[in-house]
TrEMBL record, chain A:
Pfam families: PP-binding. Residues 2-83 form the Carrier domain. Keywords: Phosphopantetheine, Phosphoprotein. This is Acyl carrier protein. Gene3D superfamilies: ACP-like (1.10.1200.10). It comes from the Bacteria.
TrEMBL record, chain B:
It comes from Gillisia mitskevichiae. This is 3-oxoacyl-(Acyl-carrier-protein) synthase. Coiled coil: none annotated. One of its GO terms (biological process) is fatty acid biosynthetic process. PANTHER family: 3-OXOACYL-[ACYL-CARRIER-PROTEIN] SYNTHASE, MITOCHONDRIAL, POLYKETIDE SYNTHASE-RELATED. The lineage of its organism: Bacteria, Pseudomonadati, Bacteroidota, Flavobacteriia, Flavobacteriales. Pfam families: Ketoacyl-synt_2 (PF13723). GO terms for molecular function: 3-oxoacyl-[acyl-carrier-protein] synthase activity. GO terms for cellular component: cytosol. Keywords: Transferase.
């Protein structure tokens, strides 16, 4: 389970060009948007693509992202229950 | 009534620095492709915005902000950008993803930022400038086209008092290296300072961003007055070009003898430089002749480097020896003509004057 969270942090750092952050600096419960990592709407689009590319999860309604992309823990929980690869 | 237009702020990022040139210690490169020297971009751009910017965007935004700071302007009325090839790094990234992922599941960032007007847009976003914003892409006349638009704006809209105008182009891994295949670049390693003595085909290339704050209001910090900018785009002999230059000067109340400095866009290509060399020994034989592409490489908006250098020369009243092509001196430079072209097309003339 923790491997998925580490993998997610690594993917987010690479995909969203957050090279100045390390995996250790991202807490599993940190907010991804707003006061946490400070991601924005373009990042949300990148995360939607990441879910589909890496885990076979296709979000048909972009608003779903608001509930899934809250934190690493929330993302990992969603991926564990919906992944197709 | 025609209003005078002044350059009151300058910002440049290139393969050289002001110090390296004016201390006569130019940076030496041994490659036909070399990168611009990056300042600390974090001093100008928030880290969260910086993370997804390619070099062109970082350079353009930073050079623009340096020019505005230099002019003591917080918010320009307009932003006009010239770029020959736009944001090539993001274009390559996007195209590579398309190929690797068979046109599916493409991430948006590189596509959004691959367009030519990304730099102008990012400057506007950063400054929160909602004014006129336009990007010109016309090969090596891109910056000159942007300058012409800026001049027209300032002359026609009396309420406009500050226009940020500049040019930017970046190196990218694949597209820039195509110059090795089509003859644009010299083959093998070359010392940039030996560019004009090698007598072979091709040139060297690099990247950079050059931004200027233009205004109609004179102040004691002005670098130069932009007298005129002109483009012509026809195959021409050196005789025809001479006639065009004389006519251009005449329209601006000057004669050849009034020119203190002739800044040439020579790029070391044996064929292309023939026209420059014919001008050097004919109408400009008595002028102080300067070159700049051996220092900054040749790319579409590199004439901005010549404008930036001209501003510094006019301000300091000092001509670095590393720029000189002949022994004619100019102790009190006042009028500078910058002439550039590529492959006998997109000829451009920029006339600057000490304010």
């Amino acid at each position: 389970m923790s491997d998925l969270r580490t993998e997610l942090k690594q993917s987010i750092i690479e995909q969203l060009n957050l090279e100045e952050l390390s995996i250790e600096e991202i807490d599993n419960d940190d907010s991804l948007f707003g006061d946490g990592l400070g991601l924005d709407s373009i990042d949300a689009l990148e995360l939607i693509v990441l879910l589909e590319k890496d885990y076979g999860i296709k979000l048909t309604d972009p608003n779903q992202g608001k509930e899934i992309f809250i934190s690493i823990n929330k993302m990992a929980e969603y991926i564990e229950s919906h992944r197709t690869k | 009534m025609s209003r005078a237009i002044y350059i009151t702020g300058i910002g440049a990022i290139s393969a050289q620095t002001e110090e390296s040139i004016f201390s006569e210690k130019p940076v030496i490169y041994n490659s036909n492709i070399f990168q611009a020297i990056s300042p600390n971009f974090k001093e100008y751009i928030p880290a969260m915005a910086l993370r997804r910017m390619s070099k062109a965007i970082k350079m353009g935004l930073t050079a623009g902000k340096i020019a505005l700071q230099d002019a003591n302007v917080e918010l320009p009325a307009a932003i006009i950008t010239g770029t020959g090839e736009g944001c090539k790094q993001d274009t390559e990234k996007f195209l590579e993803s398309m190929l690797a992922q068979e046109e599916e599941l493409l991430t948006p960032t590189s596509f959004i930022q691959s367009t030519h007007n990304t730099v102008g847009g990012q400057i506007a976003l950063n400054l929160k400038c909602t004014g006129y914003n336009l990007t010109y892409s016309q090969e090596n006349a891109s910056l000159e086209s942007a300058l012409i638009d800026a001049i027209l704006l300032l002359k026609e809209k009396l309420s406009m008092n500050s226009v940020l105008v500049g040019g930017v182009d970046e190196i990218s891994k694949k597209i820039t290296s195509f110059g090795n295949l089509n003859g644009f670049l010299k083959q093998g390693k070359i010392d940039n300072l030996g560019l004009f003595s090698q007598r072979s085909r091709g040139t060297i290339t690099s990247e950079g961003a050059f931004f200027f704050n233009l205004t109609t209001e004179y102040n004691e910090n002005c670098y130069a007055k932009i007298k005129a900018v002109s483009n012509f785009n026809t195959d021409s002999s050196s005789v025809e070009i001479s006639e065009k230059i004389i006519d251009f000067l005449s329209r601006n109340g000057l004669k050849l003898k009034d020119l203190d400095i002739f800044f040439l866009g020579k790029n070391g290509d044996l064929e292309q430089d023939k026209i420059y060399e014919e001008l050097q020994i004919s109408i400009f034989a008595e002028s102080c002749q300067l070159a700049y592409k051996h220092l900054a490489g040749d790319f579409n908006t590199v004439s901005g480097f010549a404008i930036w250098l001209s501003c510094l020369i006019l301000k300091k009243q000092e001509i670095p020896a590393i720029l000189k092509l002949n022994t004619v001196s100019s102790t009190k430079p006042k009028n500078i003509l910058i002439y550039n072209f590529s492959s006998n097309s997109n000829h451009s003339l920029i006339l600057l004057q000490k304010p």
